[in-house]
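Dear Dr. H.,

I hope your travels went smoothly. While you were away I took the liberty of generating a structure for the chain from your last submission, since the lab meeting agenda had it listed for discussion. I wanted you to have the full record in hand beforehand rather than looking at slides cold. The sequence, exactly as received, is reproduced here:
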Amino acid sequence: MNLFIVEDSILIQNRLVRFIEEIPGMHVVGVSADIRSAYEGVMRHNTDAMILDLQLGEESGLTLLREIKKTRPEIKVVVLTNHSTEDYRTQALRAGADGFLDKSRDFAEIPAYLMRWQGPDFNSQIN
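The corresponding predicted structure, in token form, is as follows:
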């Protein structure tokens, strides 16, 4: 599975890349801190899934989420944010998010989302 990370914190970017690289069958194909380069990168690479922060400097990840789902609805998107209020969750899910996680509480659940998206053959690869 080809994964693109959209996160403006270098620290979180690096943590996610290290975390994802340990999951069999996962490949980080790009990392971006802003909407424009993220959209271009997702379109340029054969992206299957995306981890998306909601707050990207002065920009909203919801804008990117809507655009991605409009042009490539098959891409799975999990929102990973510090802004985990019910209002943001509702907005993200309405915009097309396939998952919504709190950075401080749910970080460890990322592999479960990604493994579920890889399909039934994935479990046979790790057992």
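Two observations you may find useful: The two ends are 18 Å apart (CA to CA). Confidence is low (pLDDT under 50) at residues 121-127.

With kind regards,
E. W.
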